[in-house]
Design a protein that fits this description.
The chain is α+β, with helices and mostly antiparallel strands. The protein contains seven helices and 19 strands.
Length: about 325
């Protein structure tokens, strides 16, 4: 409204700043404060299912996500993801209708999606919401480790290996014998601390279809989701009887899995230099100063002890891991 004439003037909004985002929620992924604002019930529901159980653990970092969903009901769901970054700006793009932009220095991200993508809850969570939170916190507080993590008596063991190395099956085998389950595929190491604190997402486990051959009690639960891009099957830990979970623990050892080795299960010591070299293979490249912080964090981690676990039998493997935290 022009105050001098009383005539309504259309607002020129080429960047869609004026889109209304009526839903807000504060959640605590990995224990850090996150403010989520959106115009979509599906986005809010996925975020709440993903992070609502996490307590506030750290006061010194806050991140913000603004997720916008268009009204294009005809556009198909996103089915893949491409990352690109320079300096403090990173983009995650599936196509022209589904993308997100992250300002790593500010801890801020906004995304734009079509309804079909937000209805695909597994894809939205794993490929966008999880990834956005990870990269924002990797910049400032966490170091990514491609590893499962289980803990016993407050002492955690990281289970490292490539996809298909058996991290999920061994994590579950430990959990059914009384270990606390923290994560089975993506551990986060808290930087700038002497305590080697590992954080994870204990609400879900991820298995391949052939896991039932090793863990037959999971046969009825291993049902493919048919989500685009998915190669694993997700199981909610809340539905697994007797499984204890934890959000964090202090790392006592790093173990590299060598499943299928002949002979009895055994632990072979790995030097800190060799262990760092293995872990850095899956360390995302960041800006030089941040990347060196990640490397320093990994060097500190492996000083606690690193081993290669050569095994074929799950029960023998769990018994050896118990010896590390006895």
């Amino acid at each position: 409204m022009n105050s001098s004439t009383g005539i309504s003037v259309p607002v020129f909004d080429p960047f869609s700043y004026g889109v209304e985002l009526p839903y807000e929620r504060v959640l605590y992924p990995f224990g850090f404060r996150m403010q989520l604002t959106t115009n979509c019930h599906d986005v809010m529901r996925v975020a709440e299912e993903n992070w609502s159980g996490f307590p506030l653990l750290f006061e010194d970092k806050s991140i913000e996500l603004r997720m916008v969903v268009s009204d294009d009901q005809q556009a198909p769901s996103a089915s893949g993801l491409i990352f690109r970054a320079q300096r403090h700006l990173l983009t995650l793009q599936s196509d022209r209708n589904n993308f997100a932009v992250c300002d790593l220095d500010k801890g801020f991200s906004f995304g734009w999606f079509v309804p079909a993508t937000t209805r695909n809850h597994t894809f939205l969570r794993r490929y966008f919401l999880d990834t956005i939170v990870y990269v924002l916190l990797w910049q400032t507080h966490l170091t990514s480790i491609h590893a499962g993590c289980v803990a016993r008596r407050g002492r955690a063991v990281l289970l490292c290996g490539e996809s298909g190395a058996g991290k999920s099956c061994l994590s579950y085998a430990c959990a059914r014998r009384g270990w606390e389950f923290i994560t089975d595929e993506s551990s986060a190491l808290l930087r700038r601390t002497k305590d080697r604190i590992v954080l994870g997402k204990p609400h879900q486990m991820h298995f391949r279809e052939n896991a039932a051959a090793v863990l037959p009690e999971l046969q009825s639960r291993l049902r493919p989701t048919n989500a685009p891009g998915e190669i694993s099957i997700e199981v909610q830990t809340a539905g697994l009887p007797g499984i204890q979970t934890a959000f964090q623990s202090q790392a006592a050892a790093t173990v590299f899995l060598n499943r299928g080795a002949g002979g009895p299960a055994r632990l072979v010591p790995v030097t800190p230099e060799q262990a760092c070299e293995r872990l850095e293979r899956s360390l995302p490249l960041f800006q030089p100063l941040v990347h060196e912080e990640h490397r320093a964090s990994l060097r500190h981690l492996v000083q606690a002890g690193a081993y290669e676990l050569r095994y074929g039998d799950l029960d023998e493997a769990v018994q050896l891991l118990e010896s590390l935290v006895a």
